[in-house]
């Protein structure tokens, strides 16, 4: 599986600009024969609490744009964006996955809104993790602050080989980001793929990128810096099953 990680320097609350960037990188990923392209959390707006201005229906414009990009370039596409339906009091911070035909195959709502920045005041919490397949490879996905809660990763650990984490994780806590991604890979014996943004957002928060792919033994397969927006890496997901068969500690889990 060849993966493109897009460390997008997100244009603040400027969807059209970010759509154009998304298509540019999808085209590039296809030329490099990638199977999957991964964009950060809230790729189309940045980590904004301005729900009334930026949120849209789950089936709205952003969904249509992403679906068309996935279909046009025949690539699995993963991205996050904020949504709010008319009957909902708050927004939802979601991650979506599209297959090569542009069909949305799963939608995940962030289980742990980041209360430190008042995200929980503007976005409701999701309740369940999701499992989906990419070319018959079982995967799951989480969003940013979820990474600090190993319990949710444990809920899917035995049933997946790859876990994606999309984020707007600030440079000030870069070491935490890298350490936690590696820890989640080791303790769950799976590939963990973290896609984080670069640049500075509308609140003056700076992001370092540092997108990673960690293998099931914690080996660092790919590491991004704070400059390059387009990264690629390759994994063999069956290695997760091989590692588990040789050192099957997950079967001893009692909690």
From TrEMBL:
<dbReference type="GO" id="GO:0106008">
    <property type="term" value="F:2-oxoglutaramate amidase activity"/>
</dbReference>
<dbReference type="InterPro" id="IPR003010">
    <property type="entry name" value="C-N_Hydrolase"/>
</dbReference>
<dbReference type="InterPro" id="IPR036526">
    <property type="entry name" value="C-N_Hydrolase_sf"/>
</dbReference>
<dbReference type="GO" id="GO:0050152">
    <property type="term" value="F:omega-amidase activity"/>
</dbReference>
<dbReference type="InterPro" id="IPR052737">
    <property type="entry name" value="Omega-amidase_YafV"/>
</dbReference>
<protein>
    <submittedName>
        <fullName>Carbon-nitrogen family hydrolase</fullName>
    </submittedName>
</protein>
<dbReference type="Pfam" id="PF00795">
    <property type="entry name" value="CN_hydrolase"/>
</dbReference>
<keyword id="KW-0378">Hydrolase</keyword>
<feature type="domain" description="CN hydrolase">
    <location>
        <begin position="1"/>
        <end position="237"/>
    </location>
</feature>
